[in-house]
Amino acid sequence: MRRNKVIVVQNINITVSEENFDDYICITDIAKAKVGESRGADVVKNWMRNRATLEFLGTWEQIYNPAFKVVEFDHFKSEAGLHTFVLSVSEWIEKTEAIGLFVKRGKYGGTYAHKDIAFEFASAISPVFKLYLIKEFQRLKEAENDAEKIEWDAKRFLSKNNYLIQTDAVKNYLIPSGNYKENLEWLAYAEEADVLNVALFGFTAKAWRDENPELAKKNNVRDFASINELTVLSNLETHNAQMIREGRNKTERFQILQEIAEYQLNVLKAAEQIKLIVEK
Prior knowledge:
Number of strands: 5
Structural class: alpha+beta
Helix content: 55-70%
Number of domains: 2
Largest sheet: 5 strands, antiparallel
Radius of gyration: 20 Å
Distance between the termini: 39 Å
Strand order of the largest sheet: 1-2-3-5-4
Protein name: KilA-N domain-containing protein
Shape: globular
């Protein structure tokens, strides 16, 4: 049974549908951010022709869909990029038994994608739009949590790990001293999670645990991040993965991630301030 909700992202209505206890977002609606009301389906169709898109969709299906037909997927991937290659969402689903996309007719009609895929599609439309989409999606999940008294596991949405959203920011807890952003000796030995932690919070997970031994018994630093910080963290994970694929070294990636974190946090903070002024 599907339940539809609508979120508004930069004045565009985006439908979110619940399917098998998971969330699917209408990417036809997202496409309107690029081309307006009438040509959203064309944008989705062109996106499906892209080889990188098919590789992403195929990888997602192989991770989450045991019935996915890999042979058919390889056939489509071999043709992607050719001028003659055309692939509809319906054909993709029929031939590969994909579950990450579905097409709905009638009211709230359009192409729907699992939230992981929908955010990837939003990146192709506009990275800024994706940022606002994630933020509004999080607002929706918080509202559902308040209404139904169900804990919302934010990391299930952001990266399938068990990090719970908290409204208290990291700064309300003991913050480790030390200038990790300038003294980069730690970087050579750091795992990717700490590259993101320092880029966003300014310190490693171990440093936080050492300063907060009682809290660290049952929690980690990300459990006390704000919604804005978790939103940016999700984007940093995507950017970092792409840079790893590009072969960039850890120092270069860290510097770029710092810049992205600072910029996106400022964007979200400014948006909140504007909203407060408008509401007054």
